Amino acid sequence: MRVAIIGGGIAGLAAAQALGQARPDLEIVVLEGSDRIGGKLLLGSVGGITVDLGAESILARRPEGTDLIDAVGLSDRLVHPATTSAGIWTHGAVRPMPPTVMGIPSDLDALEKSGIIADRPQSLSIPRPPTDVAVADFIAERVGSDIVDRLVEPLLGGVYAGHASALSLDAAAPQIAALGDDLLAGATRARAAAVESGPVFAGLVGGIGRLPEAVAAASGAEIRTNATVREMTRTDDGWKLVVGPTTAVEVIDVDAVIVAAPAPAASRLLSDAAPEAAFALAAIECASMAVVTFAMPGSAFPKAPEGSGFLVPPVDGKSIKAVTYSSNKWEWVGKESGEETVVLRCSIGRAKETALLQRDDAGLIDLALADLREAVGLTGDPIDAVVTRWGGGLPQYTVGHLDRVATIDAGIAAVPGLEVCGAAYRGVGIPAVIASAQGAAERLLVDFGKMGL
Ligand SMILES: Cc1cc2nc3c(=O)[nH]c(=O)nc-3n(C[C@H](O)[C@H](O)[C@H](O)COP(=O)(O)OP(=O)(O)OC[C@H]3O[C@@H](n4cnc5c(N)ncnc54)[C@H](O)[C@@H]3O)c2cc1C
Question: How much is the mean pLDDT over the chain?
Answer without folding.
Answer: 96
